[in-house]
Amino acid sequence: MKISVVGGGIGGLTAALSLLRQGFDVDVYEQAIELKEVGAGVQVSANGTRVLFSLGLEEDIMSIASQAQGKEIRLWNTGQSWKLFDLGPLSIERYGFPYITIHRNDLHQTLAAGVRRIKPDAIKLSKKCVGITQDDKGATITFADGTTATSDIVVGADGVHSKIRETLFGRDDPKFTGIVAWRGVIPVERLPERMLRPVGTNWIGPGGHVIQYLLRGGKLMNYVSVVERADWQVESWSVAGTVEECLADYEGWHEDIHTMIKAIDVPYKWALMLRPPMDDWTRGRVTLLGDACHPTLPFLAQGAVMAIEDGFVLARALAENNGNYEAAFAGYEAARVERTGKIVRGAEGNLSRFHNAALKDPKLAEDYVNAEWQEDKVKQRYEWLFTYDATSVPVVAGTRSPEAAA
Description:
Elements: E1 2-6, H1 10-21, E2 25-29, E3 41-44, H2 46-54, H3 58-62, E4 66-67, E5 70-75, E6 81-86, H4 89-95, E7 100-103, H5 104-118, E8 123-124, E9 129-134, E10 139-143, E11 148-151, E12 153-156, H6 163-169, E13 175-187, E14 199-205, E15 208-215, E16 220-228, E17 239-240, H7 243-249, H8 255-262, E18 268-274, E19 282-283, E20 286-288, H9 303-320, H10 325-354, H11 362-372, H12 375-386, H13 402-405
Parallel strand pairs: 1-2, 1-12, 2-8, 5-14, 12-20
Antiparallel strand pairs: 3-7, 4-7, 5-6, 9-10, 10-11, 13-16, 13-18, 14-15, 15-16, 17-18, 19-20
Helix pairs in contact: 1-5, 1-9, 2-9, 9-10
InterPro entries: FAD-bd (IPR002938), FAD-dep_Monooxygenase_BioMet (IPR050493), FAD/NAD-bd_sf (IPR036188)
Organism: Neorhizobium galegae bv. officinalis
GO molecular function, one term: monooxygenase activity
């Protein structure tokens, strides 16, 4: 079976590596002229590292990642902190795999190297998909340079602005959330020692929140923040803002927030859009994965992990259904649609939780955090995410996902 993957991001490369390891012939078509990810960090919980380790990447990943020892909640103005949950050795003990934070480009290059070890010429650059057709013999992708590629099946892993999705299902209709996000990566020598604990921190406040965690074994600090404002609606990761604009969005916030913002060379901003999760990802010989079919708000730290799970489960479905793509796509969707939809809705639910107006009043804030992040509630929100096993979830057509069964 010849398989084309459109999109060389984290999801597309995970799918390609997983498919190659199952013995399929795979080519990846990426529109960029060079293979690189944006400068930002990503969190990969145990359900994601389970997949990466199963793909033979454990040593490569752990040599460049950071391991968070836990996560905490901090109050936007006072800095008061609450433990969210322990990680580090506890993640391995409880889930069998670590919770890591890793630079997106490091993860991206590791996946690309894994693909090239099996098939050196698998990744084709400067191949922007502009359309796709299919018939009873195969599916043909048309590229902007006028060339085409035909294969038995196609996987659309081409992100939130997916041309494959648009061709199969029509244009989507994203809704602006009224939220703008900021990101930056900071060399740790620019920050005071007290800020370099190996803990992922969620600063929460009225109308915004900030996330920080270490990368590259503690050499870099990843900064991501969001703020409620309606004057910027560009959904792009490559638009540069200014330090002064970012500081203005967090006026009155804790000095640690301002210290991080001032240490960023160029902060980038993008508008957060909301799309309802799709119930159907497949048309004939073509299916979708990752942000192409379930883009999510970044409030559960599962966006990249969902794409990693998708790619691995899709490859298993094709292998375990003996290459019968119709049965495999059905099994793949049955294993993934319910779970990913629940994650998208859960991330949306965290929006009001992180930005609640009660956080503005010091008298109300402590009671609010104690109630919303009570231990049983935290377990209810996260345990089902971390215990998911993409290496064993049923993928034969007619089976149901654990979320659907529950």
